[in-house]
Amino acid sequence: MGSVCFLLTSVGRRVELVRHFLSYAEEHPGRLRVLGTEIDPHAPAAQLLGDHVRLVPRSDEAGYGSSLQQVCEVEGVDAVFPLIDPDVSALAGTDLPVGGLRDREVAAVVSDKWSTYEWLRGRGIPTVSTWLPGQRRHDSFPVFMKPRKGSGGEDAFQVRDPDEYAFFSRYITAPVAQELLPGPELTVDVVVGRDREVLALAQRERLAVRGGEVSRGRLVHADEVERVVRHVVTELRPGGPITVQGMYDRHGTFRVTEINARMGGGLPLAIAAGVPLARLLVESWAGERPREVRNSDLSIGLHMARFDDAFYWHP
């Protein structure tokens, strides 16, 4: 069996995810080396990685690409997996072994919510009604407004009347407005392998969100949602894990709202429910043929409730 080296970018607070990869590496000696990048050596997940964290510039700064290129060459990295949205655009179109979206144009589509909406509509994928506030008058409320290129729930607001609509159209940088759907809201983790094959698909209902990331959730399954998400994957053709977010409308139809070309923040719930993420990715990048995880393999109904923990150390 072959061995691989994975580089996780911007590990930040993703302690559960990093711990999962490190546990696999410890249980399977010689199969996996795990590295991470950070701009801050005091980030929580960096404490887990210790000597295996590499400090790099921010993804929007000069030298980011060359820094990652050097890490990949020195360490023999087989796949780079982005963990935050800004890294997706920075990595796409480079010569790095990106485990995600490799095409710069496609990465730009999923990094811009207006472009995502147009892309989904053009492929007949059900999505939420979306418009640019400066190009359309709207008189029916409430609606939802957020930045076209935002992430993590930053500057996302429910807008209740024309006065708020006018204010947030100015307050939010380059906003989009969307029909406010009743929900529930789902995030679907799709583990895609090196050869663009789907290795696992897990649907998570978002029961509570804090700072744009799920704090409480449960694993669910609906055939309709799986059909829609597989349509997205077929059209997008990622070469690594992605998440597809969506909500149900008042008629009970699932509509895609966002596509994130990275591992989702709530992915540990899918792992706990039976998705062996590290094993699937290691086997795929090692040139093996991992068996796709079926719905029957998952613990549907499993709940997750997150809380804060801490590391303590002397620098």
Q: What would you say this structure looks like, in words?
A:
A 6-stranded antiparallel β-sheet has the order 13-12-9-10-11-14. The chain has 2 domains: 232 residues, ATP-grasp fold, B domain (D-amino Acid Aminotransferase, Chain A, domain 1), CATH 3.30.470.20; 51 residues, 2-Layer Sandwich (Dna Ligase, domain 1), CATH 3.30.1490. It is built from 10 helices and 14 strands. The longest helix is centred in the C-terminal third of the chain and has 14 residues. The protein is of the alpha+beta class. 30% of the residues lie in helices and 26% in strands. The protein is globular. A hairpin with a 5-residue loop joins strand 12 and strand 13.
Summarize, please.
The protein has 10 helices and 14 strands. By secondary structure, the chain is of the alpha+beta class. It has a 6-stranded antiparallel β-sheet with strand order 13-12-9-10-11-14. A 4-stranded parallel β-sheet has the order 3-2-1-4, with helices on both faces. It has a 4-stranded antiparallel β-sheet with strand order 5-8-6-7, sandwiched between helices.
